[in-house]
Specification:
The chain is of the alpha+beta class and about 375 residues long. It is built from eleven helices and 15 strands. Strands 1-12-7-2-3-4-13 form a seven-stranded mixed β-sheet, with helices on both faces. The protein has a two-stranded antiparallel sheet with strand order 5-6. The protein has a two-stranded antiparallel ribbon with strand order 8-11. A hairpin with a 5-residue loop joins strand 14 and strand 15. Helix 1 crosses helix 8 and helix 6 runs antiparallel to helix 7. The longest helix is centred in the last third of the chain and has 21 residues. The protein is globular, with a radius of gyration of 20 Å.
């Protein structure tokens, strides 16, 4: 069923950035093959990351925690994209405009990408209920990981965060990426390019600065986008809604991963040089080695948004403004686990059932339909 107009009106004022692919498809490949150093390593106390107790017990008892050096099973890692042009990638003013779960099935060589809509009304990791992208601003990646765990019944302890400039420079270092651009997207793609290289004229409109290069997209169809164009493409919010915006982000991620598979070592090294200053991660390179050895065989098999489109509602929730609301967080989580762990029946934890009830009670008087 087509969603009503409220979906298209979800405020998306902060610059949207997807600068995550380089960390997966490029960063670790180069670090492994060249011994190149320079990535900002975050030594995070994983015991302090919030996780629903039932989930933690199950993982501990199964002796199959989500660690890559197990060489088998499913490894989940969180990706965050933040607008941090000063390269401060931690908590503070950085709301995570891109929130993604990358689930790697090392037995089937499959990658499943789940975008969490940043305006989703959730427990932000401390029993406060707000738009979920606030978790990163309040408590940095540790709280953002806790937010994901508490609202999904997952046990994610690793993350990659990338700042604003990383996407543009990594795409350029790869020689561009192939993307299908529609006629409706062209004007917005070009306007976002100007906004990134230009000067504001009245607070809303921009003019390109003299002498600053940007290449307008003039025709629809499959074409090679450079770094500035790809970043502008990820930011488009006026064609479709937040569902389409996050789908564009995942498509750019997939295109970069595919380009990295066939890139030369020199190209990968250049891409790593470009992205390293804009990346912080909790992951040890050696933990990624089993995946890297098979990276060329991996395929993205699932690309979805959370909450799922037929299982959400929305509306202006008190002072939070327009929010995406899971109709039932509990039912959304059951479906999520079905996608990430095919063939396994899942019963949500009691803690998650409690969050689901609170969200329902908090939002029931504000939903559009």
């Amino acid at each position: 069923m087509e969603k009503k107009k409220w979906v298209k009106q979800i405020p998306l004022f902060i610059i949207e950035i997807l600068v995550l692919a380089a960390a997966v498809g490029i960063l670790f490949v180069v670090l492994r093959t060249t011994g190149k150093d320079g990535v900002k390593k975050d030594i995070i106390d994983k015991e302090q990351i919030a996780v629903n107790e039932e989930v933690k017990q199950k993982v501990t008892e199964s002796k199959e925690p989500d660690k890559v050096n197990e060489y088998t099973g499913v490894y989940n890692i969180a990706f965050f994209g933040v607008d941090a042009r000063d390269e401060n990638l931690g908590k503070g003013n950085n709301r995570s405009d891109t929130i993604m779960i990358c689930s790697i099935d090392m037995d089937k060589h499959e990658v499943r990408l789940i975008s969490v809509y940043r305006d989703t009304y959730l427990n932000i990791g401390n029993d406060v209920y707000k738009k979920c992208n606030a978790a990163y601003a309040f408590g940095g990646p540790k709280q953002a990981l806790g937010m994901l765990n508490m609202n999904t019944d997952l046990y994610i302890t690793d993350y990659v965060t990338v700042g604003f400039e990383g996407l543009m420079e990594a795409v350029d270092a790869l020689g561009g990426i192939e993307m299908e651009v529609t006629q409706a997207e062209i004007s917005h793609l070009n306007n976002y390019q100007i906004s990134m290289v230009g000067t504001t004229t009245d607070g809303m409109h921009f003019e390109a600065n003299e002498g600053v290069d940007y290449t307008p997209v003039t025709e629809p169809g499959m074409q090679t986008l450079n770094g500035l164009q790809a970043t502008a493409y990820c930011r488009i919010r006026h064609v479709g809604n937040d569902f389409q915006r996050t789908e564009r982000q995942r498509n750019v991620l997939i295109a970069m991963m595919e380009k990295a598979k066939t890139a030369s070592l020199g190209t990968l090294m250049s891409a790593a040089d470009a992205v390293l200053p804009h990346v912080v991660t909790s992951v040890d390179v050696e933990d990624m080695l089993p995946v890297l050895g098979m990276i060329g065989d991996y395929k993205v098999t699932i690309s979805e948004g959370f909450p799922f489109r037929d299982m959400l509602n929305g509306g202006p929730i008190r002072t939070e403004g327009e929010c995406v609301v899971p109709i039932s967080l509990e039912e959304n989580v059951v479906r999520l686990h079905e996608l990430l762990y095919p063939g396994e029946a899942y019963e949500p934890s009691e803690a998650l059932k409690g969050y689901s009830k609170i969200i329902e009670e908090d939002t029931k008087d504000y939903l559009i339909y």
